[in-house]
Amino acid sequence: MYGQPMLFTGNANRPLAEAISLHLGIPLGVADVTEFSNENIFVRIKEVVREQDIFVIQSLCSPVNTSIMELLIMMDALKRASAARITAVVPYYAYGRTDKKDQPRVPITARLLADMITVAGANRLLTMDLHAGQIQGFFSIPVDELTALRMLSDYFGQSRYLDDLVVVAPDLGAAKRARNFAEKLHVPMAVIEKRRDPFGVRTVALSIIGDVTRKRAIIVDDEIDTAGSVVQAAELLERMGAREVYATCTHAVLSGPAVERLRASNIKEVVVTDTIPVPEHKRLPKITIRSVAPLFAEAIERIHSGGSVGALFR
Fold it and tell me: What residues are annotated to the active site?
């Protein structure tokens, strides 16, 4: 058996870490995580962690590379302070799209990041809705992948004002996620067919496989980054006769022009989670945020006690 569970966090998503701490009834451990004027990151653990069961909560969100280094340096500090076990709790795993070598002379950064997390001292990874399932196999340590699928589908399922639903995958890569979402709601699904333009610069939504006429469409994906794909999908759905368009995702990256695109779009509501903090200036009235803190708290409790994390989704 490991010692007492202890929670630590970097600066990436402290509100989520505090919410997880509140659900568990375990205070966040005290640590200094600072950056010098030369951009070097410094960590000092200010509690005794010898032989304890440590959970480091850190989303790898903007500023992405700083968040990664904070996680790695914090785990190195904990390992050198003789922690018995270190679980990296990474609600959002960055570089997930770079999961294969699909062009000549390009990296597989998702694998590189997995190696870095392991070398830094992680004995286990707890994450949520990876962009690609095969990323689990990049690790030589146990990986527990949670999903916000049930929580998000329940949100739409409990709304008595929504009927004639259809779940829409914005591309073929999201089809499995959309199918599972549709099964939870017991509604049909559709898939948007996309192809690259003749110059290979951007993808263009061409057609929809499935019936969306006079239906309320819910676009389902793992993340919304610049919002280009989801807005393009919403426009196509409207042209094809959808009555209303909604969107949902686990990770609200919302980079670059995302907020303005969503503001100007025909999407009625965007439902996301707090795996990534959404600052006030990005919180449009149409954005609804659901907390994943209870899920992570339950998973942490099960990992510490030796229970089954997979049982959470049976």
Answer: 194
